[in-house]
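Hi U.,

Before I forget, here's the chain from the pilot set. I'm dumping it here mostly so it's searchable later in email.
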Amino acid sequence: MKILIATGNPHKLKELLAILPRQTKTGESLQYVSLADFPQITLPPETGTTLKENAKIKALSAAQLTGCITLSDDTGLEVDFLEGRPGVYTARYGGEPVSAEANNQKLLAELLHVPLPQRTARFHTVACLATPKGTCYYFDGILSGAITTQYCGTNGFGYDPIFLVAQTNKTLAEMTDSEKNAVSHRGKAFRQLGSFLQENKII
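Structure:
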């Protein structure tokens, strides 16, 4: 079974390939491709007002354009002090052109004088698995933590250097890939999706 991972982010692709299974429980091979294998297609903009809507836009559009079963996700960073922002605007919070540095700097500036106990936050991932026929399945993952006051760690990508994982003394960027995948929001969502693929009950 060929499955398209609808992302152009090489960091995310590497992360997902480390999580997803390689075969179903009946022994059928699961082969993954990415948007890099379909340079001729252009996905529509993510105009949804929720993570679920955006995940569906990407997965369903890619499935219908390529004829492949497709998985995608949308992830939001929800900061309590900011009443849930950046939320659906997480990836582009710092404006255009999109930059992880700009996103992080804007968030740290908004929380500049906020003490750590009030900097609680969570990552929320909604993963969507879509078929070319239009059937969609959804899977959620949440990781609780807090926003640090400075960069810590050099691993990972995006907001990882400023997201302190709850009940640990590490940011996501201070964790190894395996440590991060074991606890992360994306890991939780895609392990559920992977288990669903292994059952091979897609219709």
